[in-house]
């Protein structure tokens, strides 16, 4: 999710198919891709934390494969760019996988409903130095609103005061090289690359220096 102060998109309740698109990091998108265009929403918007939105995504993922598990909550802005969606930053993307299989299934939830979904398979030229691990039960981790509050209390207030145009983009992954799942925060107003502003142990809420 990107944390924005205003603009909220209007989403059509009937998903429509979009063409196959290329994803920046080499993820060919299948014809299962759907996306619901039509922005912006102005009233009665449903705002959800990542974990509040998750059950909606899980229901969709189980229709794709009953063995699907949650492997990550990728940064919304990056996913929108990669999939060719309008860069609105609202809502949450969820990455599902089945253990031992290469396919990745992404579900986008916004305004309380599924707004898009796609199946993808990574093209890996060289073996990456880590593996994605399934996320633990969500009740064992800090939710996105808690993450943002902890960031604000650990230098975030000063950063936001000095950067009033900041657009904060959160993601959650559990990598085999880490001892815990990690929430990371980026300021996408500075560009899509670069290092994170703030990282946090999702179990304990402890900032990672």
What's the structural blueprint in terms of helices and strands?
Layout: E1 2-3, E2 16-17, E3 22-23, E4 27-28, E5 34-35, H1 50-64, E6 69-73, H2 76-83, E7 92-97, E8 104-110, E9 113-120, H3 144-162, E10 168-173, E11 182-187, E12 198-201, E13 207-208
Antiparallel strand pairs: 1-10, 2-5, 3-4, 5-9, 6-7, 6-10, 7-8, 8-9, 10-11, 11-12, 12-13
Structural commentary:
It is built from three helices and 13 strands, in the order βββββαβαβββαββββ. The relative contact order is 0.18. It is α+β, with helices and mostly antiparallel strands and 209 residues long. Strands 1, 2, 5, 6, 7, 8, 9, 10, 11, 12 and 13 form an eleven-stranded antiparallel sheet that branches. It has a two-stranded antiparallel ribbon with strand order 3-4. β8 and β9 form a beta hairpin. The N terminus is likely disordered.
